[in-house]
Amino acid sequence: MTTFDQILPSIRGVLHAQLENLKKLERLVINRDLNGRVRLVVDEKVFDNTEARAALDAIVCALAECLGSHSFPAERMVLFESDVLAVMQGAPNFNLEGFSNVTVVDRLAAETDWATIAPIATGARRTVFFSIKGGVGRSTALAAGAWSLAQVGKRVLVLDIDLESPGISCSLLPNERRPTYGIADWLVEDLVDNGASVFEDMIATSDFSHDGEIYVVPAHGRDPGEYVAKLGRVWMPKIGADGSRQSWSKRLNRLLDDLEKRWQPDVILIDSRAGIDEIASACITDLGAHTVLLFAMNSEQTWSGYRILFRHWRRTRAVSDIRERLQLIGSMIPEVGGVEYFNDLRENAWNVFAEELYDEVPAGELIGDYFSFDETDQTAPHYPLPIRWHRGFAALQSIHSHLQIIDFSEVTSIFGHLPLIEENVYV
C-alpha cells in the first residue's frame, strides 16, 4: 500500500512509464490536497483534443492504480482549467524531479511555505536566531548580542516572535518596563483594521541601552490578557474588503516594515520559535533575513531536524535562495572536553551540509567554482561559531541582572563573534 512518503516517487515511476503520453500534454499539475490525495490539473483544451485526452486517460488510470487511497478515483481525478498557472498561485509548488513540465502543488493547513524564500530586505540588517530544539541558549545569545551592539552605539530592534514560548523580553526588560501590548496583540487587532491602536504601545526601551538603544517588541504586553485566545487567532489571514487575502506571515512582515520605518534601527534581531513549524518558517523565509543563525548542540535530534529541513529545501529547489544566508552556531560548548566536543560538532555539521546544501564538486573541478567547502574552512556556513557554556548565563531569568554587571570583554569571550551587523563586521 502506498504511504504519503511514496506519493511522489510513485508518480515519477508512473510518468516515466507514460513518457510518450506525457509529451502530448503541454503542462501537468499534480495537486496534493490537505488529506494527501492527488488530482491532476490540465488545460481545458485537452478535453476536446482526442489524442491528448486519450494520453491523459492512460496516465490517470495508471496513477489511480498505483496510488490507491492517495488519489481520487479515476473518474474524478482530473480538473480542466482555463488558466492552469492560476491554480498554483498562493500555494507551495515545485517542479517534479526529472520533469520540466510537471508541477507539484501542495495544499497545506498552515499558510506558510518553507520553500519560498523572500528576497533580502533593504534597510537595516535582519538576523534571525533559530534552533531545531529549545534550551540551546538561543535567546540568551540574542540578548547578549543586543547588549553588545548597544555598547558600540547601535540602535537595535529586538522582536520576540517565539509567540508560543515567549521569553527574550524578560531578559532585556524588567516587568515594570514592559509595554502595554505585544506582537500577538497587533496581529489580532490588525485582522479588524485596529492595529494602529496598539502600535505605539508595543515597544519599550531596555535599560541596557548605553551609547546606543535597544528597542524591544515582546510577544505580549505587561498584562498578557486572553493570550491563549489571541494566540489561536494570530495565524489567521486577513481578508480585505475587496476580497484580497494576506497570510499571517505577510502581515508579520508588514508589521516589521512599519516598526523599522518608525524606529529607524541599525540592526534587527529576531527570536524565532524553535522547530520546523509555521512561526519558524515565517521568520526564516518571509522576513527578508540577511543572516539566519542556526543554533546547534551535538545531538542526534539536532542533526536529524536540520537534515529534514535542508532536504526539503533541496527537493523544492529553494536551497540556492537560502544557503548563503545560513551560519551554524555551536551552542553551549562545554568547559570540560570542549575541543573534542567542538571537533565532533564540526564534523557532524559538515556531513549534513555537504549532503544536503553544498554542491557536489565533479572530479577534477575546483571547489571554488561551486558552493562547497572543506570541513575545516572557517568561512563556511557549517563551521560552528562557538558559544561557550557559562554558569552566569545558564538561566534566562538571570540574564537581566547579569548583563548589568558584566563587561564587554567577558561577553566576547563567551559568545565569540556573531555576525549581526554586516559582512565581515562582528561584535
Write the SSE topology:
Elements lengths: L6 H11 L1 H4 L5 E5 L5 E6 L6 H18 L10 E4 L2 H5 L4 E3 L6 E5 L18 E7 L6 H14 L3 E6 L7 H5 L10 H8 L5 H4 L4 E2 L7 E5 L9 H5 L6 E2 L5 E2 L1 H16 L3 E5 L6 H9 L4 E6 L3 H16 L3 H4 L3 E8 L4 H19 L28 E4 L10 H5 L4 H8 L12
Parallel strand pairs: 1-5, 2-3, 6-12, 6-13, 7-9, 7-12, 13-14, 14-15
Antiparallel strand pairs: 1-2, 4-5, 8-9, 10-11
Helix pairs in contact: 1-3, 5-16, 10-11, 12-14
- Poorly predicted segments: 422-427
Any idea what the radius of gyration is? 24 Å
Please identify, by name, the CATH architecture of the largest domain.
3-Layer(aba) Sandwich
**Which class of secondary structure composition applies to the elements?**
alpha/beta
Please give the CATH class of the largest domain. Alpha Beta
Explain how this protein is built.
By secondary structure, this protein is α/β, with parallel strands linked by helices. It has two domains: 4-106, no CATH class; 125-415, Rossmann fold. Helix content is 35%, strand content 16%. The protein is built from 16 helices and 15 strands. It has helices spanning 7-17, 19-22, 50-67, 84-88, 138-151, 168-172, 183-190, 196-199, 227-231, 248-263, 278-286, 300-315, 319-322, 338-356, 399-403, 408-415; strands at residues 28-32, 38-43, 78-81, 93-95, 102-106, 125-131, 155-160, 204-205, 213-217, 238-239, 245-246, 267-271, 291-296, 326-333, 385-388. An eight-stranded mixed β-sheet has the order 8-9-7-12-6-13-14-15, sandwiched between helices. It has a five-stranded mixed β-sheet with strand order 3-2-1-5-4. Strand 1 (28-32) and strand 2 (38-43) form a beta hairpin. Helix 10 (248-263) packs across helix 11. It is globular. The chain starts with 6 loop residues before the first helix and ends in a 12-residue tail after the last helix. The model is unreliable at 422-427 (pLDDT under 50).
